[in-house]
Design brief:
By secondary structure, the chain is an alpha+beta fold. The protein is 29% helix and 22% strand.
């Protein structure tokens, strides 16, 4: 998926105030409204310690289409680092999923893109 510049949208909530979800630049408005129909979105989760985790959100239909396209195009396999499947890809669902992922230690088990060890600073 294309890598666009990112901007923070919304804020942090609850116990996990040590992170923020950063959405693509220009996300609010039309692109946000179209995201559920497109079925995917790449975001970054940025922690207070400076670690940055890219996360790709897909709905089941878009994931199936993407995998089928890759295989039909001659790929032997399909991979996507930090892939998360949501019933519907919306801002609210992404924020809820990330909060749960933080609360359950998901980010402690993966490596940040900036070379930080998998430590979200919790």
């Amino acid at each position: 998926m294309p890598n666009a510049a990112l901007e923070q949208v919304g804020g942090c909530s609850g116990m996990a105030e040590n992170y923020r979800v950063v959405f693509p630049e220009g996300y609010r408005g039309r692109r946000e409204a179209e995201t559920a129909d497109k079925g995917w979105l790449d975001v970054e989760v940025v922690f207070a310690d400076g670690s940055v985790f890219p996360v790709s959100f897909y709905d089941p239909a878009r994931l199936r289409q993407t995998i089928e396209d890759e295989i039909a195009g001659g790929s032997l396999y399909f991979t996507e680092p930090n892939l998360v499947i949501l019933k519907k890809v919306t801002t609210a669902n992404i924020e809820l999923a990330v909060k749960d992922m933080v609360d359950t230690g998901f980010f402690d088990s993966i490596e940040a893109k900036d070379g930080f060890p998998g430590d979200s600073g919790r």
